[in-house]
Design brief:
0% strand; 275 residues; single chain; mainly alpha
């Protein structure tokens, strides 16, 4: 098998399985370090936004220009960027209410079921349903993320790996969102970790299935469209998920500092890599 494909799959697998890190944090911590959480989520958003506009979108326009004028290529890339955002918005729309994987990302938001035996049973059932729904929602979200990460690593490993790290950071609170309600429902860390782990596997699954479907059609023009949509997906995740989650976790300007830091580190690293 081509070593580039193996690398792309391994990086995508790493990003997806970061949900397991979220589970570990949930089991080892009784409270969330809100300052660190806000900074890291802001940092991840900064990396995603910077890469999307400074690297991925120009790359997409360059591929599209192989079959279109520069002006038309820029317009097509912009339309595909919006298309990627719309795709993620549609995915969000089909997620059941109350199963948003970006809510309940703080360990202390959950508590032990209490009351009569019947009330505890009802609460445990609801918590289990929440955990399963959140895991399903994460799997749906991770499918296009996995394909995006895989194709970008395949095309440009340096940019793809940077994006994968940002996606992995974004997946950590999702692991918390799955494991905490399942643990309180079942009292089993193994079950909670397993469900969180399985939801993360949707990322490499999306990479493999998507690549097998698209491989016969991957001309430069199609690749350009996909990369522009990838940029849209990443911008949507940063604006709709990472920044609000970070902002809700801490007061002050920590989220903004993390955002600026992510952009600055990404810009500096790409400049150094080009020397």
């Amino acid at each position: 098998m081509d070593s580039a494909i193996v690398l792309a799959f391994a990086v995508t697998l790493f990003a997806g399985l970061a949900t397991g890190i979220g589970s570990a944090i949930a089991f080892l911590s009784k409270t969330t370090n809100k300052a660190f959480f806000a900074l890291s989520m802001g940092f991840s958003a900064g990396v995603m936004i910077y890469l999307s506009f400074a690297e991925i979108l120009p790359k997409a326009s360059g591929y599209i220009s192989s079959e279109a004028t520069d002006t038309n290529a820029a317009a097509i890339a912009a339309a595909a960027l919006i298309g990627g955002m719309v795709l993620m918005a549609l995915i969000d729309a089909v997620v059941p209410s109350g199963a948003n994987p970006h809510e309940n990302t703080r360990v202390e938001l959950m508590s032990e079921p209490d009351g009569t035996l019947e009330e505890i049973g009802i609460q445990q059932k609801r918590l289990m349903q929440m955990g399963v729904f959140v895991a399903l929602a994460i799997a749906i979200h991770n499918f296009p993320e996995g394909l995006a990460t895989f194709l970008l690593v395949l095309d440009d490993p340096e940019i793809g790996i940077a994006l994968a790290i940002a996606v992995a950071m974004h997946n950590i609170p999702e692991g918390i969102a799955v494991s905490v309600p399942v643990y309180y429902a079942t009292k089993s860390k193994a079950k909670a970790f397993r469900l969180s782990f399985l939801s993360g596997l949707a990322e490499p699954a999306g990479a493999v299935i998507g690549y097998l479907i698209l491989a016969p059609f991957l001309s430069d023009f199609v690749l350009g469209i996909i990369f522009a949509m990838v940029a849209g997906v990443m911008v949507f995740l940063a604006i709709d998920t990472l920044l609000p989650t970070a902002r809700n976790s801490s007061r002050g300007h920590l989220t903004v500092y993390g955002l600026i830091g992510g952009m600055a580190v990404m810009a500096a690293s790409l400049v150094l890599l080009s020397l």
